[in-house]
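A note from the maintainers: we've had questions about how concatenated examples are separated. There is no special marker in the raw files; a new sequence line simply starts the next protein. For clarity in this README we add a label.
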Amino acid sequence: MRLLASLVPGDASSLSLVTAPVPDPEAGQVRVTVAACGINYPDVLMIEDRYQFTIERPFAPGIEIAGTIDAVGDGVVGWSLGMRVVLQVDHGGLADFVVADASALIELPANVAFETAAASLLTYGTSYHALRDRAALRAGETLFVLGAGGGVGLAAVELGKMLGARVVAGVSSSAKAGIARKAGADVVFEYPTNVEDQAVLARLFATQCPDGVDVAYDPVGGMYAEPLIRRMRQGGRYLVVGFAGGIPRVPLNLVLLKQCALVGVFWGAAMKADPDGSKAMLRELLQLLGDGQIAPPAPTIFPLERGGLAIAALKNRTAVGKLVVRP
């Protein structure tokens, strides 16, 4: 089989398309023919050895997969050849096949395309977990989404509206502004991507949210975090989702003065801590996708041999919406 492998630490240009034997499932496992693999920021981090854990090389990045069952190991019940599935793995999705525990599988409804599923599992899972479980977002509250033109940001905008919030979306380009408006944002504005003076951001955020923010959704971090914390209302919840702009240094006296909460969001850890509850939530999201109640924009598709370009686009923050690799 083919896989886009990380052989040495480095950026996306270090990846190599190589061949390897097709793996066989062990007891309790299945083999899945990968139809589509979503690209996510952990892919950027893991190939550069900057992720939460280090993976033994060689390995293929890719954690969000949709495909069909190709082989079934001993003792597997309820799954058979040809069934359409989605799953999240620690790595390995940028390949023709992946082997995973049968317990990781979720059946994919026939009315949800592979590419849509692979573009939605992590983004909508992360955002729904963040807004519903971690922030307990309520109807009528103001939700501020940074990075609203990216995959998780767009999901947060759409889910925030579904939950009844007023959504303010910050984006890094005019191209991303249009897609955030289409996702349902009430207010959309563009912020600078290269900023050295946080006072500029503080004034901009104050203009866009003069009455403050109840829930902030931040997958960007960096220089943007402190100015946004300054807009939090008493009792607000600041969701720490990711660090596309770097890990911020925040004066914690602001949290005390604002009487707000900093809330970590780690969807992967949540899935491992409560696999049954997490899978139930994903089934709910897949049902919403199938019914058209949530409608992510069509992802940009890359062939496997060009998967590194997708990872590079995500790192460089030039991606609009979700990127998917199709072997």
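[label: protein 2]
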Amino acid sequence: MDIQFTHKEALIFKQISSVAAQLNMPCYLIGGFVRDKIIDRPVKDADIVCIGDGIALAHAFAETFNPKPIVAFFKNFGTAQIKLADLEIEFVGARKESYQQHSRKPEVEMGTIEDDQNRRDFTMNALAISLNEVDFGQLIDPFEGVKAIENKIIKTPLEPIQTFSDDPLRMLRAIRFATQLGFEIEASTFAAINENVHRLKIVSQERITDELNKIMLCKKPSIGWELLNKSGLLKLIFPQMLDLHGAAYLDGIGHKDNFYHTLQVLDNIAEHTQNLWLRW
């Protein structure tokens, strides 16, 4: 598949390619940028994975500019970020991860591009494009991520139960992506969410709220809330919302189900405003 870059994007990625070659450091464009290019969604940030020191690559890339852009780097995480006029670029070394039962923060060690793709949450986010001079622009798709995008399916690259147990936030991300993109969550992947609901307890409220806000900003947020309901996650994170379920009876006459009525009101207001707080 031929991924179409804009002229500016192509110049930037060629520049990164050249710098990486000088450092003898293979590098790849990976994740959301690749996915969104295939879907034809607007892109504003790009993730670069290199086999080596991502911070060193970012600094070397910055040196090719005049004036030189600021490199924000985080040694503890091995990441660096450069903000250009039209694109925010993050650099990181390829890594493999292992998790402890009590935490979603992984133990990290240096790895290959294959290791890095293995640790991704969904097949559509494991897509990579080579920025190496020998095969510049070649798509690397070990988990049939393109096929998943074409079929509008969300599935994990590895066993879903392990994927969600390792990092339970991925369960909310699956529902958020399904709501944003109009995709379906593959059956075994959704079943694994049902089985791992309890694992969400190790995720901070801040991260949970961030995903809920993204669902609320979707074109039709009710899709996400219904998936949260069916998955069992809603009972854990917002039981008061679940209490709205069921039709009320007055004088023996059944009235509307307040849960679904609330979702309909939410969808109605979503047609008229992008204001997050009005949607809430």
